[in-house]
Amino acid sequence: MISFLCLLNLLYRNFLSAKLYNLSQKQSSANTKAKRKGIITRFLWLVAPLVRLIDKLGLRFLLDYVSIQAIQSYQKHLSPHKGFSCAHSRLHGAESCSEYFRKTVGTYGLSKAIPLFEQRLIDCKLANATLKAKRLSKNTPIKSER
């Protein structure tokens, strides 16, 4: 019981220090554009130090299991309301971003999957822009030359 409380205390202090660091970074870069705009990437950036700490404590299996269950819950309950598929999978014909993240967590663990997933979200954003540009180019009328 004492070790569990020590673990919670350590996690809380690590979370608090990450949050304070995040606030200081926001204040120091007030004039520059924020690199991480999305809520998912901000959340992952905030959770990453905790994940590394839990990984060092040897509780990777528990963290991976909880993460995979959360992703499967998202896929079952929230994804149907959004349309089941992301822009990256529609453009490239690959698996969706959530499925990619689930498989990556299962293969590499959450601590190594987070940076890979952040890159995938960037790729998905680019795929969304590509699809939007294609859609707009199809809808614009072509002027005939006279």
Strand proportion, as a percent range, falls in under 5%
What helical percentage do the residues reach?
over 70%
Order of helical and strand elements: HHHHHHH
The helix/strand class is: mainly alpha
Uncertain spans: 27-34
| Average predicted confidence as pLDDT | 75
Tell me, briefly, the overall form.
elongated
Q: How can the largest sheet be summarized?
A: none
How big is the Rg?
20 Å
Total strands:
0
- Tally of DSSP helical segments: 7
> Separation of termini?
84 Å
Write a compact overview of the structure shown.
The chain is built from 7 helices and no strands. The chain is mainly α and 146 residues long.
Give the secondary structure arrangement, pairings included.
Layout: H1 2-28, H2 39-56, H3 60-77, H4 79-82, H5 87-92, H6 97-108, H7 110-139
